[in-house]
Amino acid sequence: MAAPAEMSPSKDDPPKAKTTLDKPSGPQAALTAQSRDILAFFLIFRLINALCVHTFFQPDEYFQALEPAWDMAFNGESGAWLTWEWEYQLRSSLHPAIFGLAYAAANGVMDFLKLVPSVKATVLVALPKIIQSVFAATADFYTWKLAGTLYGSNSNATWAAFWVSVFNPWLWYCSTRTFSNSLETTLTVAALYYWPWEILGDAKESKPQVALQQRSSVNRLRMSLVLAAIAVLLRPTNILVWLAVITLTLTRFTLDGESPLQRSSLWVLVREVVLCGLAVLAGSVLSDRLYFGFWTFPPYKWLYFNLSQDLAVFYGHMPWHYYLSQGIPLLSTTFLPFVLIGLYKATTSPLSESVLQANTLRTLSFTVLTMLTALSIISHKEVRFIYPLLPILQVLAAPYLASFFITPTSAVSTVATEHLSPVSQATTRTKTTLRHKFFLANILSINILLSTYLGTFHQSAVVSVTTFLRHEFERLHPDYLSLSQPTQHPEELFAFFSTPCHSTPWRSHLVYPALRARALTCEPPLHTAPGSAERINYRDEADRFYDDPVRFLGNEVSEVPRYIVGFAGAEELLNKYLEGTIEGKRTGIKLNKVWEGFNGLFNEDWRRRGKLVVWDTGIYNGKGGREVTRKYI
């Protein structure tokens, strides 16, 4: 791999007919057209993906992206729920700013067109999905491009990487969600594609030109560093990816051949790292200054609270092997055997066409192992924390996947191909036929079933309930649908969520500021010292509700809501208070089920099992929302 595949067309390429002198012709024009087609395919595919996914995965999809974005677009009186991380500046404003600007622009256009509030609300709810579908498609596109750089643009391995992106259940389930990890993945794989991999080659095999001395190479380096810097600012752990790449580049540890980097090239590398890093850092600091109103540096705050204050443990403690036993299998699903083979082969003895290809594969595998090792030391673990490694795993697995399911049938004789490695077979341009079709059909069927269930049914009610409540508010309060700061609110608490904290989206789906709602919170014990008895025994609001609902409802809930939202098991807890205590009977509440939704076949949290239900308390009439009597718990 002396150069990207796009710059090294195969001798087998048929001659291209010339068109005009002004237009590119030949293999390069065909590759450019192919790239446009692939990008268009992924854009359409991920848009459909985004519009088909109606389920809930993790609260950060909404509370670390869309809630602060809503706050940016519609001011502090919009009803957005800003969690403690935003109060203490642990998060960069760069990610939500993307959606905040889109919210503001879309709302301005819809105001100009004088669209009715219900239509505006529907558009604003769907808008982040549409934006994220572009980021997801871009990640798929650059995964394909990275594979093409390694194995050749039209190789079987490159197309294997393409189809893995299409049929991977994790990508269908998560890539179009507005996690910072999703954007981090896009930035990481694009940065890896633009990274000047030729600096990992062997000086004896390199071209006469000195590495990083050509303008095109330096421009690619700059693009890579800018994207990498943004990824690191969004998610500080992303620095592990680039520490691994740069460490092997400079030390040549485990790499073959002699480094083509000379002193002048090293100076260029250091210069660009500093300049690109400072430029991105300046933009981030300015963005945070505009959002928070004062100078702050979220990466430092993030490190302080998660390491010094040890607050990450408050959100879960996983065993050291979590990423090996659960993380990689969940990312890879049925493609796991090929991922493990590709990772092992690339780490130990890459079977490659050149020193450069072998060194690149080994660097990518070293990057995966570095990040897995470092993150395994941290107590709090989630699969999405290693999501940026998925494109690398797909690229490493691609040649072994291709060689298992594809048999070359022409251009190279059977005898000639028997001695070739899987990488060599997969990167050979030949006419091919599929093999192991039964196994392939089963893999694809399982992946399609997983994607359909996870994207359509698993934890779907916690999203659709917000649509029900929003439509009910539009029906009952048509005069309170302004998205600007409302001058009046209906004299009612519209909904009380008795679900565990952050079980549903919030203002990004409820939309209207006048729709007042309350949910159980789970703020961490910031006032306590790490390891103290007070922290160990700390119970947040959601814990206190499920520990003793009667006491909680009697002491901590004051205003009677129109609707109560909870999982089916909560009805017994609510009736225990409403029918079994004097205070509960005085409220006059008689629970009447008005909506329920299927929320999946299973849930690891017993508090979230069963259908999600909405009960009408009967305290308010059905016209205009005026109270029959003003009652409190």
Automatic annotation (TrEMBL):
It is a multi-pass membrane protein. Keywords: Endoplasmic reticulum, Glycosyltransferase, GPI-anchor biosynthesis, Membrane, Transferase, Transmembrane, Transmembrane helix. The keyword Transferase applies. Its EC number is 2.4.1.-. Residues 1-28 are annotated as: Disordered. Mannosyltransferase involved in glycosylphosphatidylinositol-anchor biosynthesis. Transfers the third mannose to Man2-GlcN-acyl-PI during GPI precursor assembly. InterPro entries: GPI_mannosylTrfase (IPR005599). It is found in: Endoplasmic reticulum membrane. Pfam families: Glyco_transf_22 (PF03901). This is Mannosyltransferase. GO terms for biological process: GPI anchor biosynthetic process. The keyword DNA repair does not apply. Pathway: Glycolipid biosynthesis; glycosylphosphatidylinositol-anchor biosynthesis. It comes from the Eukaryota. Residues 9-21 have a biased composition (Basic and acidic residues). Its main location: endoplasmic reticulum. GO terms for cellular component: endoplasmic reticulum membrane. The chain crosses the membrane at residues 225-248, 268-291, 328-347, 359-379, 385-406, 438-457. Belongs to the glycosyltransferase 22 family. PIGB subfamily. GO terms for molecular function: alpha-1,2-mannosyltransferase activity. It comes from Coniochaeta pulveracea. Signal peptide: none annotated.
